[in-house]
Amino acid sequence: MQEHTGARSFASGYLEVKNLYKTYYLPKRETGSIAVPTLEDISFTVKKGEFISIIGPSGCGKSTLFNLISGLEIPDKGQIILDGKEIIGQKGHVSYMLQKDLLLPWRTVLENCILGLELQNVPKREAINTANCLLADFNLSEFAGSYPASLSGGMRQRVAFLRTMLAGRELLLLDEPFGALDAYTKSEMHDWLAGIWPRISHPTVLFITHDVEEALLLSDNVYVLGPRPAKLKLQLSVSLQRPRTRKLVVEKGFIEMKRILMDSLFTLG
Amino acid sequence: MRRYLSSASVVIILLILWEVIVRVFAVPKYILPAPTQVIKALYIDYNLLFGHSMQTVFEALAGFMLAILAGLALAVLMGLIPSVKKTFYPLLVISQTIPIVAVAPILIIWFGYGMMPKIIVVALVCFFPITVSLVEGLASVDQDMVKLLLVMGAKPWQIFKIVQFPGSLPAFFAGLKISVTYSIMGAVIGEWLGASQGLGVYLTRSMHSFLIEKVFAAIVVIAVLSLLLFALVSFFSRLIMPWYYQKSPWQG
Ligand SMILES: Nc1ncnc2c1ncn2[C@@H]1O[C@H](COP(=O)(O)OP(=O)(O)OP(=O)(O)O)[C@@H](O)[C@H]1O
Ligand SMILES: [Mg+2]
Predict the structure, then answer these.
(1) Cα-Cα-Cα-Cα dihedral of A32, A37, A40, A45, to 10°?
(2) C-alpha distance across the termini of chain A, in Å
(3) Which end of chain A is least crowded, N or C, by CB within 10 Å?
(4) Is A229 in the pocket of ligand 1 (CB under 6 A)?
(5) Is the pTM of this model over 0.90?
(6) Looking at the CA of A225, which ligand is closest?
């Protein structure tokens, strides 16, 4: 894990979300519109290098939160501070893997992977080498030259994940990155993450998932959001030893934490 | 080739029927020539038709290219700048209501009997489908892909190059395929009104001499040439968008 540098980021967190509010307005057939309050007074602080999972019922506003942090949308109220700077409405600070894979059909798998590096003017040769290494890690080497149309849903998602990792930003927003994967491939991805995490100066991650076990296996902290309008219902610090493996899921401490999260998810309000 | 088998058999059956009807009812040649008579005319006038075709194809291709250049420029401007689209899109549609056959004589007055007015007629005919399809293509690009690039910090021209333009290519080529089949027709219309070379000239001359089998021969040549140009555009579309023709695993 990278050490904090500078007094500013030491005093506060790396990413600070303060009193965030967001309401959407759906146009009605007649006059006016219906207000859809989506985020209500969301505040949290993330330390540099932390891995945070966010769980919450479908439609509660998880993706909305990411759209705000990535600068795609503007909150009604509140602050988003990254590394001491206000970033509301600013794009290009984070790597964001959207819920859809959004692979460009006219680019091969390899060309899709290096998109972020290309936009940062990394020399092409270097970008391709880096991408090829990761493709091999993900068992996708033989598809490097194929177009996304010939990939399965799970393969597409892994390519999108790879593209996000490669973009090389300090903060990753991952919106259900493994949602389309079967249990086995998902587990492989967890192992891969668990394997490289201690070795690299890893980025800070916000990770949306519906899979409570996944959240516990990967995260330092799990945030539970309530139903829309989303409020932060619970912050659970996951103190399990790393590297974590599948075996953990049957251990007592793990099950206890899983129970706490499930209780929080399934109690209304 | 096999996928055209059913279409080809329909054409052959129709031709045989046509031949039989003309022979059984002894339809005079100046009303409706039999397919065999048309083939004979094609054979006899082969050299002449070839010369005229070259002229027409040249005009058609030149006009088509002109239309592509103009269409690309206007469509990209309209796609990128909303106010340009708002201003010019209705004008573009209105321009289509002006009949080309009425404009062509004026072009001849302005530009004389040379190739220029024919090329312009072709360009006018082809311009609309190309421009409209590209504008629609640009407008229908997946906005989430644009968002993805925005988040990655891409600049507007990078978004255009990486997402919007490639994303609108299928629509663009659909427009090219439509307009290229009009291009020969456009050149022929231009030639009708006054020229010394070209299939339009051959057509009017045959018409005036009541050599209807030669008129049919010209029609056949025009159809074949249009098909060839269509095939050419299809070839380029496969060359430029291999990804578009690749089947997904779930499409079987
Ligand atoms: N652009 C928008 N315009 C109007 N309403 C929106 C918009 N985006 C999201 N919403 C609404 O905000 C709410 C939260 O949506 P969001 O996509 O953030 O949910 P989510 O928590 O990511 O759900 P899921 O787990 O199903 O992906 C929903 O009720 C949705 O209808
Ligand atoms: Mg979502």
Answers:
(1) -110
(2) 36
(3) C
(4) no
(5) no
(6) 1
Give the C-alpha separation, B30 to B84, whole Å. Answer: 53
Shortest distance between the Cα of A150 and any Cα of chain B, in A, equals 5
Q: Closest partner residue to A115 among B142, B152, B248, by Cβ?
A: B152
Q: At what angle do helices A153-166 and A183-196 cross, to 10 degrees?
A: 20
**Facing A149 at nearest CB: one of B144, B167, B243:** B243
pLDDT digits (tens, 9 = 90+) for B79-118: 888 899 999 999 998 988 888 888 888 998 999 888 999 9
Atom of ligand 1 nearest to the CA of A225: 21
Residues paired with A172 in a beta bridge: A95, A205
What value of ipTM does the predicted structure carry? 0.86
Q: How far is the CA of A63 from the centre of ligand 2 (A)?
A: 4
Amino acid at B241: M
**Residue whose pair of structure tokens reads 């880096």 in the numeric block:** A130
Architecture of domain A2-94+170-265: 3-Layer(aba) Sandwich (3.40)
Contact A178, A189 (CB under 8 A): yes
Superfamily of domain B37-247: MetI-like (1.10.3720.10)
